[in-house]
Amino acid sequence: MFRAIVLEKTDSGTGASLRELEETALPEGAVTVQVDYSTLNYKDGLAITGAGPVVRSFPMVPGVDFAGRVRDSADARFKPGDAVVLNGWGVGEVHWGGLAQLARVSADWLMPLPNGIDAAQAMAIGTAGYTAMLSVQALERLGVRPEQGEILVTGANGGVGSIAIMILAQRGYQVVASTGRMSERERLLGLGAHEVIDRALLAKPGKPLVKERWAGAVDSVGSHTLANVCAAMRQGGVVTACGLAQGMDFPATIAPFILRGVTLAGINSVYMPMPARLAAWEALADPALLGQLVDNTVEIPLNAAIEAAHDLLAGRIAGRLRVDVNA
């Protein structure tokens, strides 16, 4: 038997409950993992509350990531006792995910835990930190350098945003954080932002082009916010888009792209090829960054995850939520 959060389709939407399950209930997969930790991401919040069409089949165990140790493996790449981490690949959406004490998955989805990162640290990073690193690496790959000017991070109090601030600040960038919770200003400055602005400045319909300000941006919000970010980019600026907290529409014009040479780079962390995953996780194995991440992570037991999912979507959570599935 093992404990898991299970989502069921109901007449009124989605029902979530903590259950004891037989191991025979696990889906097919070559590797069975004894999960140590998972996290609560924005997508998990949508799945658990039923606020978004994340789950594609029911019943479903949510949790888009996890870290733990291999218990059984039918694949030569992994053996019992190996420390592993998983992000994405549809777990928690079309395949049972990490908010459980056991997970059974394809060996193609698993990655050995990088040296210097343990399971608890890995889920302080989680999908949010991995996505933030992919976003920063995309900015750098596309030529954005610290001396070129300010970098805007939207959704700054969320998991991706807060970790993006840490990474960018440690790499010498001047970061401006956009948030709807100005009460968290001091926390964001402590993460490395040099300025905090109210998201209301970006959240409403705007002009196709405005005064140039941003050399780069990490956006996890979408909709009007992303459109306004693009409108204020400097010549040759780069925006990475990895989320849709405000909406999945993009009410913009092509003006920033053809008149200022702006690049909009999409970050698909779910199906990122393994070499890019390895590069991102290896970059995250930085002692200073890990220390800061752990300091900004709150750990909760599995039986608190359903309530916490509602708090997450309501904007009552700042930073990272790590779930100890065995507590």
Elements, N to C (H/E): EEEHEEEEHEHEHEEHEHEHHEHE
CATH fold-level label of the largest domain? Quinone Oxidoreductase, Chain A, domain 1
Main CATH class of the largest domain: Alpha Beta
Strand content: 25-35%
Looking at this structure, what is the CATH superfamily of the largest domain? Medium-chain alcohol dehydrogenases, catalytic domain
* Outline: globular
Low-confidence stretches: none
Instruction: Name the helicity range.
Output: 25-40%
Structural class of the secondary elements?
A: alpha/beta
Largest sheet composition: 7 strands, mixed
Question: What do the pLDDT scores average to?
Answer: 95
**How many domains would you count in the coordinates?**
2
How many separate helices? Answer: 9
CATH architecture name of the largest domain: Alpha-Beta Complex
> What is the tally of beta strands?
15
Characterization of this structure:
By secondary structure, the protein is α/β, with parallel strands linked by helices. The protein folds into two domains: 2-117 and 285-324, Quinone Oxidoreductase, Chain A, domain 1 (Alpha-Beta Complex); 129-266, NAD(P)-binding Rossmann-like Domain (Rossmann fold). It has nine helices and 15 strands. The strands form three sheets. Strands 3, 4, 5, 6, 7, 14 and 15 form a seven-stranded mixed beta sheet that branches. It has a six-stranded parallel beta sheet with strand order 10-9-8-11-12-13, with helices on both faces. It has a two-stranded antiparallel ribbon with strand order 1-2. β9 (175-179), α4 and β10 form a beta-alpha-beta unit. The protein is globular and about 60 Å long.
